[in-house]
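User: Hello! My lab partner asked me to get a predicted holo structure for this protein. The small molecule is flavin mononucleotide, SMILES included with the sequence. Please write out the structure tokens.
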Amino acid sequence: MNTRITSLLNIVSPIVQGGLAHLAYAELAAAVSEAGGLGQITAMSLPSPDALRTEIQKVRSLTAKPVGVNFAIGQHDRPFEEMLDVAIEEGIAVISITGGNPEPLIRRTDGHDMKRLVLVSTVRQAQKAEAAGADAVMAVGQEGGGHLGRDDIGTLVLVPRVVDSVSIPVLASGGIGDGRGFLAALALGAEGVEMGTRFIATKECLHAHAAYKQALIQATEHDTTVIKRSLGTPARVINTKGSAYISELEKQGVGYEGLQEYISGRNNLRFIYEGDAEHGFGWAGQVVGLIQDVPSVQELFDRIMGDVNAFQANMQKIFQGKQQRCC
Ligand SMILES: Cc1cc2nc3c(=O)[nH]c(=O)nc-3n(C[C@H](O)[C@H](O)[C@H](O)COP(=O)(O)O)c2cc1C
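Assistant: Hello! Below are the structure tokens for the protein in complex with flavin mononucleotide.
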């Protein structure tokens, strides 16, 4: 498959593994890149520039294929400029930026052989990213897992709106987990997809606790909630007792002071690393409704790309009136 994204990122299948805070380390990133997509290490999961350098060197020992580094710059306790310098020194081919104005990081990479992807949730953000020099944008709809835009625009509307509003290539994100979603994204004008939640339920996502993966399998599309809306930073979680308590506190209007302890990184790790659903929470998108197993990343890629061929044939039959439903 050739799209502007496969050429830009020098990959075989236009599937990017999204930044996954505290989950996207060398093993997962290498598995995605080895399978033909773009794997990423998440800088915010690492405590220091030196730790990022070690992680990049680890991923290099696992794959020679392109790998990206994700910068969620809303997290102000990391020295992102220095971490970016490490990524440049280590010859990282792609970065992705989310959570704030991407321009300073993009300027810092000017003159280096590095592609810059920016995660956006509105047309305006996409246009600003293009003007700032982004090479592609990933348009994430409100179905997605983790932090979202404030405007609740779904992937099905956001992606074609962004495609029509910028000239750089667009990846669709939010709610994609199988070949049907992948094909739908291409039909919307995207030239690739970004997936987050689906990659947590893979064998190579070593850091996710078995209880988190099991919860993703058991959940239906009804079993996620947006929390932190009262703070202006909405983010989608899988329902746990910990997340229900956060929602309850938000209803009571306790504000940041009252929420701080419960939305902390520590409580995130309690669920995703320790499986403690009583007190902890974990990000996940509505695509949980489509997750039924924990394959290897290679099996997932084979399934998606295999389904693309089968579904294309099925759609042809639908157009000819020989079949009622696609899949
Ligand atoms: C557990 C989790 C952690 C995430 N952490 C980050 C992050 O650190 N940086 C980032 O750019 N996006 C992050 N995201 C968003 C994903 O990269 C991706 O945009 C989103 O998951 C797409 O929606 P999907 O979950 O429906 O595939 C996270 C998502 C999840 C589910």
